[in-house]
Amino acid sequence: MVKYGLVIDRERCIGCRSCVVACKNENFVQPGNYWNFVLEYEQGEYPNVSRIFVPVNCQHCENPPCVKACPVNAISKNDKGVVLIDYDKCEGIRYCIAACPYGVIHYIDKEEILYPDEGKIPYEEIPAEDRHPLHRKRPGVSEKCTLCWHRIEKAINEGKEPGSDYDTSPACVPVCPAGARHFGDLDDPTSEVSRLIATKRAIQLNKEYGTRPQVYYVV
Amino acid sequence: MKLKVATLCLLLLVAITLSAGYVGSMGMGGRGGAGLEIGQRYHNIHTMQVGLECSNCHISEYAPDYVYQRKYKLPVRGAPGPVDRGICLGCHKENGPTSKKFYGTAGG
User: Fold this and answer.
1) A68 in Cβ contact with A62 (< 8 Å)
2) What's the complex ipTM?
3) Chain A residues with CB-CB distance to B75 below 8 A
4) Is B88 within 8 Å of A99 when comparing Cβ atoms?
5) Which of A4, A98, A187, B51 has a CA between 20 and 30 Å from the CA of residue A79?
6) How near does any CA of chain A get to the CA of B102, in Å?
7) Which residues of B touch A106 (CB under 8 A)?
8) Which of A71, A102, A109 lies nearest to residue B78, judging by beta carbons?
């Protein structure tokens, strides 16, 4: 059984937001919404202070509350462990947003473009039918990180190993200049992510919710 | 007189139909009023039936180290500002009192 996930090395993260930009570019994310975001805060007291950066995206939980909360069954977890929203089924009820303890699901209430005064840029002009189904969002639906499932799916279909190179990894991973983000199969004990979890101090966010996230943080 | 009553009824019917259509077109009024807006199912259950006060969930601010992606979003529809997530856990955990068990247990 394959179970894809991320390991994010919080000690390495410098808060540059390259992952945020790569994600927005790759996934047609609505202006104002973020599938991937870097939270930051200070720790300690002067003069011994440090700045903490925590990149947060969908945790692709093993026990996803959003799936249970959706009354129209628009959210599902596929056989590779990726939690996805079906935009054809989503009715914008937003119980998923209320149930998610990570705040990573966003609602599209209207179509927004980057430069309202200048019209759509060519990137925004790409018609829905030319996009991957996971990028055919519309006003009135919720959106969130797909772990770049369109890339993983393409890699699998082409007989490539997901995560083996730039195009087969989630967009946020290879762009990280600090090498803080790692993608791979959590069920494969020889994968890089499993090795990191086994050898470093890796934690999951908000364990008290029992969601069993597939995103780990090295702290 | 009968004509006046019939016209009034007809107008009322049209108004109800139009308003239902409007709410439906917003994508929030289907499924028996399911939605997060005040007056819809979510808030009705938690305030009228469960008896929660607004301030039980809507807090003034998050702790600086609170890890929640939408914590910086201004209070707008779909992001109602700081909300204490812990209160959800009380009822919606695996062995909680409600039938809607969204969360597991810490060890699970």
Assistant:
1) no
2) 0.89
3) none
4) yes
5) A98
6) 5
7) 70, 78-79
8) A109
Three-state secondary structure readout of A83-144: EEECCCCCCCCCHHHHHCCCCCCEEECCCCCCCCCCCCCHHHHCCHHHCCHHHCCCCCEEEC
Average pLDDT, chain A: 95
- Residues A136-162 pLDDT 10s: 989 999 999 999 999 999 999 999 999
B58 and chain A in contact, CB less than 8 A = no
Tell me how far apart the alpha carbons of residues A199 and A186 are, in angstroms, rounded to a whole number.
14
Give how many domains chain A has, as a whole number.
Answer: 1
Which pLDDT belongs to residue B11? 52
Task: Give yes or no for B100 touching A (CB within 8 A).
Answer: yes
Show which of residues 66-85 on chain A sit within 8 Å of chain B, judged by CB atoms. 68-69, 71-72
Chain A residues whose CB is inside 8 A of the B64 CB are 41-42
Report if residue B17 sits inside a domain. no
Mean pLDDT by 10 residues, chain B (108 residues): 56 43 41 83 94 94 92 79 91 91 84
Q: Which domain holds residue B83?
A: 31-108
Q: What is the CATH number of the domain that holds A63?
A: 3.30.70.20
